Amino acid sequence: MTISAATFLMFEGRAEEALAFYVSVVPGSEILSINRYGAGGPGPEGSVILATATIAGMPVMASDSFVKHDFSFTPSVSFFLTCSDEAEIEELATALGDGGQFLMPLSNYGFSRRFGWLNDRFGVSWQLNLP
């Protein structure tokens, strides 16, 4: 038996927008496929049944839930990006932080030369590290 793993993100109507944003900001990322609900489907027409992508080469799946939930994303699960230089971490922090909220602003916290943790505008959590 072969098992594979991927991060799965459930949005309430913004899956495609979020993935397009991540692909535009994070190098080595691309949307691989998007399947949408049609007319008469259980979800709103055009919303995402399932999208697949890679974020910095990591497999990611996403969907739009047409059911309202009492939960959303939590910072206890996050994307962790290891950056190669100061310019890259600054660029990612600026882009991902736009419309979001920093939990730990970019700084030297002693365990890394530069580190930051934020929730983006979609509520997804990102840790940015410059070792």
From TrEMBL:
Residues 6-128 form the PhnB-like domain. GO terms for biological process: methylation. InterPro entries: 3_dmu_93_MTrfase, Glyas_Bleomycin-R_OHBP_Dase, PhnB-like. GO terms for molecular function: methyltransferase activity. Keywords: Methyltransferase, Transferase, Ubiquinone. PANTHER family: PHNB-LIKE DOMAIN-CONTAINING PROTEIN, PROTEIN YJDN-RELATED. This is Glyoxalase superfamily enzyme, possibly 3-demethylubiquinone-9 3-methyltransferase. It comes from Bosea lathyri. The lineage of its organism: Bacteria, Pseudomonadati, Pseudomonadota, Alphaproteobacteria, Hyphomicrobiales.
